[in-house]
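Colleagues,

For the teaching module next term, I've prepared a clean inverse folding example: a structure given as C-alpha cells, and then the sequence designed for it. I'd like students to try predicting residues themselves before seeing the answer, so please don't circulate the second half yet.
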C-alpha cells in the first residue's frame, strides 16, 4: 500500500463559536470527559514537547494527572531528558489526539514544578510496583541491560518494603496555559480550529484557517 494514498474523511462532529465554552479549560474538560465516557484507549495520554539547550525539540507521551485553574499536571523523573530540558527552558507544549472523536487539543505555556506536598500525595497513591519503579529506573540514562532495572527493583523493594518514600528526583510538573487550540476534523479538509490566547488576563477566542 502507498502511504500517500491513505486518506480519511472527518465527519463526526463540528466545533463552532456559539456551542463552545468561552473558557478553554471548560472546553477541554468537556472534551476530555467525552473521551473518557467513550472508553477511548488511554484518553489521558498526551504528547509533551520540550526544547533542549541545543534548540532541538523532543517529544514523548505522558499522562495527565491533574487539571484545575492553575494548569495541567503530570509526574515524572526530574533527572530525565524532559526534566533537564524543562530545567533549562520552562516553555513547553502538550497535545491530545483522540482519533476516534476526530479531535486534537494543543496547549502551550510555561512549566513549573508542583509543590512537594502535591508530589508526595500523588506518589503515595501510586501502586507499590510503580513507587519502587521510580527508584529503580535512572530514566533516560544508558544502562547495560534490563537486568539493571530488575536488580534495582529488587534492591529497593527489599530496602523500603511496603513504604517507599518519594525520591527527591521524582515529582510533578504543571503547565500554565497561555494558548489553547481545539481542532475538530471536518469533511473536505475544512476542519474547525478554535484558538484561545491570553490577552490582558482574558481569553480571546478566534478561528484559524485549517
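(Answer key — instructors only)
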Amino acid at each position: 500500500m502507498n502511504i500517500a494514498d491513505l486518506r480519511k474523511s472527518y465527519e463526526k462532529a463540528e466545533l463552532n463559536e456559539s456551542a463552545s465554552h468561552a473558557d478553554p479549560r471548560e472546553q477541554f474538560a468537556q472534551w476530555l470527559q467525552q473521551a473518557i465516557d467513550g472508553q477511548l484507549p488511554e484518553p489521558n495520554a498526551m504528547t509533551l514537547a520540550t526544547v533542549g539547550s541545543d534548540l532541538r525539540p523532543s517529544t514523548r507521551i505522558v499522562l495527565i494527572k491533574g487539571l484545575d485553574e492553575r494548569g495541567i499536571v503530570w509526574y515524572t523523573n526530574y533527572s530525565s531528558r524532559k526534566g533537564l530540558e524543562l530545567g533549562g527552558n520552562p516553555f513547553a507544549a502538550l497535545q491530545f489526539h483522540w482519533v476516534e472523536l476526530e479531535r486534537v487539543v494543543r496547549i502551550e505555556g510555561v512549566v513549573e514544578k508542583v509543590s512537594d506536598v502535591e508530589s508526595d500525595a500523588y506518589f503515595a497513591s501510586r501502586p507499590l510496583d510503580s513507587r519502587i519503579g521510580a527508584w529503580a529506573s535512572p530514566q533516560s540514562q544508558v544502562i547495560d541491560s534490563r537486568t539493571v532495572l530488575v536488580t534495582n527493583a529488587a534492591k529497593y523493594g527489599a530496602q523500603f518494603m511496603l513504604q517507599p518514600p518519594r525520591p527527591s528526583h521524582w515529582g510533578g510538573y504543571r503547565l500554565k496555559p497561555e494558548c489553547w487550540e481545539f481542532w475538530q476534523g471536518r469533511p473536505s479538509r475544512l476542519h474547525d480550529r478554535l484558538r484561545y490566547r491570553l490577552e490582558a488576563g482574558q481569553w480571546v477566542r478566534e478561528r484559524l484557517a485549517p
